[in-house]
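Archive entry: two folds, one per protein. Generate the first.
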Amino acid sequence: MPRYFYVASLSIAIVAVAPTGSDAQDSIPASILVESYVPHRVFDTKQNRFSDFETMLAALAKADVVFLGEQHDDTRTHRLQAATLEGLDRRREGPIVLALEMFERDVQPLLDSYLAGAIPEADFLAGARPWPNYRADYRPMVEYAKAHNWPVIAGNVPRRLAQVVSRRGLGAVDSLPSDDRALVARDLSCPHDDYAKRFAATMGDMSGHGVQMTPDQVKAMVQRFYEAQCVKDETMAEAVVAAGTTHAALVVHANGSFHSDYRMGTAARVRRRLPESRMAVVSFVPVEDLDRVNGKSRRKLGDWVVFTLATPKPKASAPSPSGSPN
């Protein structure tokens, strides 16, 4: 029988005095009626067997860079990410930096001001372009970092600049104004490798969209989209490396799993910049049935695969905020 390990969410509100009586449940705001645990199973890909959350934390605490690859719309994954931060804080003696795909480089000054207590959260959110699910899914991590005086890095390239590349190609970066060019990684590489093949396969048939295109036009469009993806990966990798070097710290980077699965994407670009670094890739995989997961079939995703019981989806889900496969 499989073992289950339950990790309490850091975002749970603790009520000191709860109402009693038949209408007690109705008196509790719906915003704090959350699950008290997250069902999951942890697979150790090096040992090729199921393990547990604490064993994973002990291994991650020895790394220089940890990637937490997520499905953006899976709330249970986000709660386990927050629990990972808490666990690393408990096990790691040195400093920790939180880096996020979900904030773009140009909002770093605003993020720093909020972390320093110079501006209220409302002002920070008004200017930082948070993702729609920030409050429920990413705020717990940012607030934990803030409470422990950790730097938080806005690592992603501004979406407007990625869109320029997706329309005009990688060469468009060289024609950006100097202020915008500084928001993009200095060194850019976009090889035609397995990552490019995986990207093209994920994009699928792009000949729809209400416009008739020739196969060559479709190929060119997918290539531009891939180049925009490379710009995101390179920029986030540059931010991770800079953060780790500046603060001599473990950097925990939360990103869509496509950016780090199989140690490709952002993970590969960090490796190129820091070939001797101790890097760990965690891939969170929502599944419908934890009793039937096959860890061995997913072992190439990273160093650890955390299967979560998939969060029930609403009838209509929004597209990925990153404008990329994940």
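Generate the second and append.
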Amino acid sequence: MTGKRVHSRGTLRPATARGFSLIELLVAIAVFLIVSSAAFTLFNRQQVLLTQQQGLAGLNIGLRNALTQIQIDAVNAANGLVLGAYVPAWPVGATIFNQNPASACNNATTFQYSSTCFDTLNIILADPLTPTCNLAANLNTSTASTVNVVPSTGTASTYAGNFKTGDTLLVVSGNGSPFTTITLTANGTASGSNIALHFTSTSAAGINPKDSPPPPTGTGLMITTDGLASDLGVNYYQNTPTTDWVIRLAPITYYVDTTNSNDPKLMRQVYGGTADVVMDQVVGFKVGAALVNDSTDNYYYNASAANATNGGYNNQFTQIRSIRVSLMARTTPNGTSSYRNQFDGGPYQVLGGSIVVNPRNLSMNDQ
């Protein structure tokens, strides 16, 4: 009898589970760290580039906005000074104070800028809220210190309060020449149908002693300067009471405030108001002018009479027909950055822009 072989059915055990060895674990961690380091390094670099691009984009937008604001104001230079049929033969619509430092005006170590690095632009406008006034009697601005004027519209009691201490008034003959400015020493007061005005007398040549250089070096508008001597005068009214005028000015001044030398700011000062910041971190603000009597169409940048023979415009602001403004600004300085720009070697990026403006009122009498 054939016997059957009996197989024992024992429990099958799986092969022993084998995990990572310590060496394999260390290798895996090392690879992970290398890959992670590379990823974070790339991320950091891209983050720096993104920050730089955002800074440049903001800087570019700021420059465009600032130059646009200057353009809007400058194109209206002399607005309100064209008096209908009595069109002035000049007019003075802009004055420029150029800085010409003999040495570097910025600190290459601290990246700070001083006021001597920047020009100043005055845009001359008539006050739109105050009517032009006629002289009520003969006036010699060098011997008198008071004058009575009559508003061309409205009443004296309505507009006397518009004239404030420190105001600059333009006194101009109906044919546009001569002219001068006077600075009020008291508020205007109504006197019957007249407005009584008190002012600082001019020189015998018609120069207003209060017409000093503009902010930040002074408070004047530079309308009556030695370079304009041939256009200035002191005698007005002279039997033409309806064509000699007194105009309250409301100028707009652009200058750079360096109170914080680490952050120079381009300011827009509307007369009688507070100065507003137009652009911060400014490293360049230069203003030039082209003159109607210049055959080479150059833009001049020097108001000094001593430089008249070599191209300076010698304060002949009645001849200005075009204004060029150049503005440069930087991103916020980063002292920890290894980057250095090629403009002034600072740890920041620099952008610049320029505009040319032809004020429409300044060529009204050109042939």
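Annotation attached to the second fold: Residues 25-82+95-116+257-367 form one domain. The chain is about 15% helix and 25% strand.
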